Amino acid sequence: MELRHMRYFVAVAEELHYGRAAQRLHLAQPGLSQQIKAFERELGVLLFDRNRRGVALTEAGAALLPAAKDVLARADAAVALARRHGAGQAGRLVVSLTRSAPGGVVTELIDGFRDRSPNVEVLLTSGYTALHEQRLRDREIDIAFVRPPIDLRDDLACAEIGAEPIVAAIPRGHPLARKRRLRRGDLTGEPLVWWPREHGPGMWDRMLDQVFGEGVRPPVARWEPEEERLLQAVAQGHGVTLVTEGRAHNLRMPGIAVRRFADPTPTVPIAVAWRRDDADPIVRRFVEYARGVAGV
Fold first, then answer.
1. CA-CA distances (angstroms) from residue 79 to 26, 71, 76?
2. Closest among 94, 103, 99, 107 to 136, alpha carbons compared
3. Which of 265, 270, 267, 266 is nearest to 293 (CA)?
4. How far apart are CA 53 and CA 165, in angstroms?
5. pTM for this structure?
6. pLDDT tens digits, residue range 257-273?
7. Contact 267, 165 (CB under 8 A)
8. Phi and psi (nearest 5°) for 218?
């Protein structure tokens, strides 16, 4: 049984006129009549009563009509679904967010993509940049927000979509907390609360280079694995630290003063990373959308 025969049958059943049905289907009337007869032979039943007054459905034809419409609707839906998947308009996308970049352009991109792709299931997870690189290579995630530079090798691609100011978090009772803006040298000699370089070597180096001077690595008084614990340690008076402005805003804690630096303000970029060999059209659409929003 061919779907085209179903379509021909439904058209004639709805029009109850071979001429109008033929026009609707863009077929010659004799050809349509022959196709309906072939369909009846295949089924072994008559679907239409034909007489001088016109065409009427038989009992078998009337019984078939709603089922035929349902079959055609399901077939059309299946074709549309396949086309949406092929165009990257349906399916699933696993996106991992970097913990240091909540809100801002990241939220704008995720929300905007979801609005434009309601049939794509966007699954979110989070982590740090070095972990994202490995998870991309292991094909556990499709898209990652990272802090470049990252280890691209030949298998990963990366596009910067924005930058965020670096700020200093200082115990509220510290003399530096009385300043509105800090100079680069103000933190020299202060005990530093810091995080492991292996979590994101590019961001680690960039932040220290911009604030303390290229290649200068101040002694670390206390190591902590993530921003929340860094800020808790600062609030407890163990030293000062550096975080992105957005992270400082979202992790507001009592006992901490957050201060920006004088111009030129140190910044860290935020980027989207993906696998170069990923042929999934949803990934391509997300990257194109991210680049469009960022103007890159």
1. 21, 12, 5
2. 94
3. 270
4. 82
5. 0.67
6. 999 999 989 999 999 99
7. yes
8. -65, 155
